[in-house]
User: What shape does this take?
Amino acid sequence: MKAALQNYQDRMRRVLDHIDRHLDADLDLDTLSAVAAFSKFHFHRQFTATFGLSVHRYVQLSRLKRASHQLAYADDLDVTDIAMDAGYDAPDAFARAFRQRFGQSPSSFRKSPVWEPWLAAFGPLDNARSKLMQTTFSTNDVTIRDVPPTKVAIMEHRGSPEALRATIQRFIAWRRAANLHPSTSPTFNVWRSERRPASPADYSVDLCVGTDRPVAGCGEAVKAGEIPGGRCAVLRVVGHTDNLEPAALYLYRDWLPASGEEARDFPIYCQRLSFFPEVPEHETVADVFLPLR
Assistant: This one.
């Protein structure tokens, strides 16, 4: 019975992976039921029963997620091109669907995104993925590195996690203006609180870009700092790196007690090596660092 359930879940997992990798392709029921090796007459009900939303809605939300990131973070992309990439034949159809989901037109969202409806709209997508797509780690995935110190410019986010994306948008705009491109200036997040603290006001994370340039007077409350060098346990995460909490939990809960190591007095942090939507979500890469004594 257990083996049969595992096989069933593996087949459903293949479908989500196929959608991730072929978001611009024709993702109809015939195609996806064939990927899962299920009857097309029953597949849509099986998918809905497993994930809590229909195949069509899952695909639409996946495309709209990419489109919304492109609107918010990729000013060089035209709204019409974004609409076509999202599977819409005309910008007005895309605008209607976008407004229905997020309460804003695409152009309004690009100028001034309201993130609360966005987070609510993608809750079902995140819940669906969490059912079968959780990444598991092992000690073989962890390496210990001697990391050099890195001078950084820091934009602090303090307060509700729901407001983080607005801070990220300001951070991206600032680093573009400062000509600190991710390909030449590394990107770090330093977590100074739990991902979901008891009080949202206690949420705290530093958005950092590696640079030794003076940052005084740069505006946007940017300040100079340093990520200290030293030994670190490093865990690489590939794909869907928007939530790195499972990797951090593995390092703290599983790897650290069994390793005989002790944590150093600096927060856990990550370096983001590639970014969505510049690459598809399943191709994003981040290294999570646990500083060691």
